[in-house]
Batch of 4 targets.
Target 1
Amino acid sequence: MKNKFLLIAALIMLSSQVFALRAYFDYKVFNHPADGPYVEFVTSFDGTTFMLAPADSGLYMSKAELMIIISQNGNIVDYRKLNINGPLVEANAPQDFMSLERFLLPNGHYDVELEIKDLIRGGDAESFQQEIDIKVPTSGIHISDIQFISAYRKTTEENAFSKAGYDLIPYVSNYFPTEMNTIMFYSEIYGTDEVFGKGEPFVYTICVLDADFRQIESCKKIKREKSASVVPMIQNVNIAELPTGEYKLRLEIRNRENVVVYEKERSFSRSKIRTMPDSEIVVDNATVANSFAAQYTDRDQLYKLIEAHMPIAEGLDRITINNQLREADLQMLQSFLYTFWYRKDKVNPEAAWRAYEKQLKEVDVAFGNGKKPGWKTDRGRVYLQYGPPNTRAIRHNETNYFPFEIWHYYETNNGLHDRRFLFYSTDLSMDMELLHSDVPNEVQNYQWKEMVRSRPLALDMGKASNLNSNQKTDPFSQDELENLWFTPY
């Protein structure tokens, strides 16, 4: 089963979805020796998308409503409705906040519905549905889900995030950008006392496999433990030198003969951008004054050009563009423009900028409209960030579907392979929104087929774009969308 519910791998499947409020949901399956399987649901709320309201001592707070409904065979087996408060913050300094809920659920197939609402802003709740299967062995050695964590500490007071004597802060993603050089994770090993005998030594190994299933030797670890009904493990793996690509983190339990008796894997993506050390970047006023950046003398026009770097800017650059440069003077903007491209190509930064400037014009013609420039549209942003797609299946005039496009990449600009994006429009404006992708940290919605097919048959097709794909297939086939997604060649 290939499902994503919000940038997360669960015991059974990888699951990922981004809500309009940008809340990220994660579920993991563990096992309690006495009570049986239980599922942890973690919801991470993007504080920048929730409204703040005055709270105590002149500070502000976000408030979210979270409902988790778990059904089986059409019957609700458990649910919770919670009010989640964000931290106390300054008026202009929102912070993310998080919720963790545990549900005891026997082995079986379940439907999960998640609803999130901003209690301060009001309005309708965002909702998402997902099927999950729980298959925890009842005997023998097995391993829980692998839970990525961003931090941990000794528990001083029991709370929702406490486990095995530690407070574990989940990392709600399977994507590790350049600035993250370590993977920290938590997992549990079950049943070693049953197989090896209580208190007997055993070995488990940690390794990382690349896309060709080769082990990365620099990431390999061997750990010794004593058997028990539950053996918790908090470990880390150094990925500082791991290049951009797709990987698997694998845990292996070995017996005295060094034979693997059980293994568990979790996929993750790595983006490693080799940047030039700041010590090598020397930009003075004279350099900027004699560079291509000095050609831009209109302060407002230059900021708009710099703002158009957002699709390819990362980390500190994004923060700088959004915050520090909004009120910056002309000289500072010129300096930023030059430095940005000098970091990418110190031999010929102007050529690098001109190539991107040409792409900006291309996406403006192809995807821009009267309301927004091309780079601000979803298709324009993806084109600039990941490069032009290798194939582009276009369906703008089908009576059974909303207008949609599926873009396929053999390889993206950041080294990801065999990736797809699906865009669609429900209002015929052709400003298509990104509905679904299999790229880490992008919108992922596994109801995309149903949503694209939900177009009323009586819609006036005369208002639609006259663009269409010459890759014509049977529009009434229930498999057409899936075929276009999985076989875009």
Note: Confidence is low (pLDDT under 50) at residues 1-19, 276-280, 457-477.
Target 2
Amino acid sequence: MAASREYLPRYKGGWTPDSGPIIGGVGVAASGLSLKAAAALSDHETYSALRRSVGSTMALLRAVAVFPKFNRVTRIGTDLLATSIALNAETQFQRSLD
């Protein structure tokens, strides 16, 4: 599992509207932006590790979306912004391979 922290480990606050959800110290927005940065820099190792994690997480969220109690949580990881960032990173990564 690869991800990016939004804040240093010693930070004890919650998430803010601009940072998005923080789950187990992992920033959803930070991880998405790290994916994009790795693609832009042609960092294949980091990109691949993050992409596997993002793909697994999005698949899990889509699978549990059928349960009403998980509906709000699943929207976090499968919303338009999250999907757009992942798709843009994938496009940029594929271009770096050409």
Note: Residues 12 and 25 are 10 Å apart (CA to CA).
Target 3
Amino acid sequence: MDGTDWKSTHIYMLDFEGSPASGVVEYGVVHLIGGQINATETSLCRPTGSIHSRDREVHGIGETEAMAHELFSSHYAHFVELRRKGIFAAHNRHAENSFIKNTWAVPPVVPDWRAGFGTSQEWGPWVDTLSLYKSIFPGLDSYGLGDLVKTFGLQQQLEAAANEYCPQKRRKPHCALYDAIASSLLLTYLESLDEMCDRMSIRWLLQLSQGIEPQQELF
């Protein structure tokens, strides 16, 4: 399982908008199957507390709008099912992992992708495009999501995908599905590099995502 080509494994790229005060107020999920965007999903979520004005300025979601939706916690069964089918991914796994663990500490029994066999009770391990790009491309001026998209010439592709998949008013940075698509494009871009295409096993991605240098040289 862990040594197989990454395209043979379902990867779910997640992005959450929110804060510790409000909880998750929007989620976006990109289903990467066969190394391509196969499906997407997104929803606003009722806040568990106040949405501070400074947070609203970032993600553009107001309390009145969000209150019309279900709490993020009501989606537990769905996220467990995703985790059973594959691996979670994010750009900066620590942020997304904190959001999901603050809502649900652990899932029930799910596949142990780190070991490559057996089961575990954890949302991870995560594929992390932030860690991947820091390892593969050291010395860049910025590893912010938007900056990486521009650095590697993915902006036009991102805009096209956002127009296809994102709600009309949520086609910009700091919108959950838009950011999840951006992170997905960073992951799929790696395989277009001659140096990467034969190395991208699940084990390799997870090692670099955790900051563990693989035995083989990157280039």
Note: Residues 58 and 174 are 7 Å apart (CA to CA).
Target 4
Amino acid sequence: MRRKVRALRQGAFEASPGWVRSSLGPVVNYLDMLFVDHGIFRVIYPNRHKIAGNVWRMAQPAPHHIRAAARAGIRTIVNLRGERYCGSYWLEEKACARHGVRLENYQVRSRAAPTREEIRGARELFKRVEYPMLMHCKSGADRVGLMSVLYLIAVEGKPVDEARRQLSARFGHFRQADTGILDYFFESYLAYSREHPIAFFDWVDTVYDADELKRQFKARGWANAVVNTILRRE
């Protein structure tokens, strides 16, 4: 249903006269960001936190957040939602270009076991981006929590048991919902490594089975009702 609505919005906008797109485009984008993408709540609370010395995490930034980040020295913004047909993305893209911040689109998922390719790709991303860096998803809770844990393990060398605190109710993360599969991913490594000592990325490369992890994980219905229906997380 959401894909159909998005397609209809895209078709209507592209079919409109050029002067409408150029004159009303920014207004439409802001309205879309605030009310369709729930940005009105992020204006009040952007869920912004420091991960390490020169790395930050937050919810989907509005243009004024990007301006402030640029003034604070942020050189790269990593968008974990990926390229999207929505006002939030278009405004982010323009604001980054305007303020000289590099925008990196690296899409990850909040309700699926991460693949080996996603984990390896995250590690490579951390090697090549320019710092200071800010990462975000929609709400600043789940996908950016996953990537924050991976950053602390891959770059800062933090133990997994310490790094996984980035997936916490403090940031709005619900481990009891489908999003808890991200917690279960790291817990599976810790359980295995207690019996068979192995480095995290070696475990990912040689032991980890995303399909088996998905089969084993069970969410709770009430938590999914909160996350999916009330909070309307992605």
Note: Residues 58 and 136 are 5 Å apart (CA to CA).
